[in-house]
Amino acid sequence: VALLARVEDSAGPAQVLLLAKARLFSGDPMGGLATLERGMERHPASPDLLEGLASARLAMGDANFALALLDRVPAPRDAKWFISRAQAYEVLGDVAGHEAAVRQGIEVFPGDLHLLAQLSKSLSSQGRLQEAAVVSASIEDNVIAKPDNIAGFVTSHFIFGDAQGAADLVSRIVAKLDSVELNRTSAKALIDL
To answer: Is the predicted pLDDT of residue 89 greater than 90, yes or no?
Structure first.
């Protein structure tokens, strides 16, 4: 940690992020947060540091501050930015804000599976199950088109404590694969499950 502190003073934004992650993974979340904050003092316009600090603040439950940081990220913004905004609204309990942030992201990144998954989750939580089912079907179709994404989506079901959902997803995907030509990528993705 002492070595990290010496390096931090001259680090650029990418290095600050790495140093902050090193502190976080070494069991020092407050040190990681402090590293990001000091990095922001030196690089106040860095989109990566803004997003990194926003993620750290969001993880600590400070969704309003995370949103303020995300608002400072200049365009163009990536899909991860929209997901972070949606998660901040979710932490605040703002269902409409969560859905709006996700839909704005989908307008910019229409095929992004993570944004589509967030939309499906939002619709399901609102009891809009038919809409959620339509979005889920499009996710599955996209997973079939890009089989290397299968493991990530099955894993996301487990992360949310939905083992049955994971099993159902795998069953539906395997059923759809019967009509798709298996190749090395899709076979590897299924093996990785």
So the answer is: yes
